[in-house]
Amino acid sequence: MYSIILVEDDFMQRGILKKMILSIDKFINIYEADSESTALDIIENNHINMFLIDIGLKESSGLDLAVKIRNISKYQFSQIIFLTTHMEYITQAFKQTHCYDYILKPYDKDDVQAMINKLIIYENSHLNNKNDNSNEDKDREIVITLKNGIYVGIKIDEIMFIEVKGKNCEVNTINGMYIANNMSLKKVIKLIDCEYIIQSHRAFAINRNYICKIEKLDVKLSTVYFNKYIKTALLGYKFKDNIISEFKKDKVIIC
Which InterPro entries match (predicted)? Predict the structure, then answer.
C-alpha cells in the first residue's frame, strides 16, 4: 500500500489536505504528525513513500526535519514536498533537501491532486522496475577465483553475508563459504550491485532477506543472526538504523 505522511501542526489544514489526497485513492495509507518528534517516530517504524512537510512547524523547522529524513539511507531519494505560505524558503528547501516540489497554502484541490497523482504513478512505475530487477538478481551469479585456481559461480540470491578478513573476503552462502582473495568489501559490494545486500559494519555486508534476529552487544555493536546458519555477522552503530529499518520492512511490528 502506498504510504504518505502529513507533517502539519495545524489540525484543520491537515484535515483538508488529507481529504484531497483520499479523493485520489481511498486506499492510500496516510500517517499524520503535528511535530518533528512524532513524525520521526512514525518514519522510523513504518515505510513511507511520500513526505508532505510544513516548512513552518511551530516547534521546529520543516527544513531541519527534511534534512534528518535525507540522512536516513533508504529515504535519500524519496519524494519530499513542502507545504508553505512563504515562497522565500523554497529556494533554500531545494538546495538543502533536493525536494521534489512544493504546495502553496491555501491549497488548490486540482493542483494538489494533479501533483500527487503524478508522483504516485512515477513511484509505482519505479517500484515495478525495481521488482523486475530483484527477480533478475535471483538468477545473477558472481564468479570467485579460489586460491587453487578453481572458479566457482555463486548465485547472488544465495549469499548470506560477506566478511573481510585481512586482504580477503569470505563469502558465506547457503551452500558453504568461499574465499575471494585480494578483494576489498567495497569492491565486492560494487560488483554484486544488489539492493538487498547491505553493508552492516566496516568488515561485513549482509543479505537482509536472511536476517532472523539482531541482538545488541554493547553501545556500538550488535550481532546479526541468520536463518538456519550457525555463523553470525556484526552490525556497527553507523549502519544500525538502516539495517533495522530494512529488517522491519514489509513486516508487522507488534511492539
Answer: CheY-like_superfamily, LytR-like, LytTR_DNA-bd_dom, Sig_transdc_resp-reg_receiver
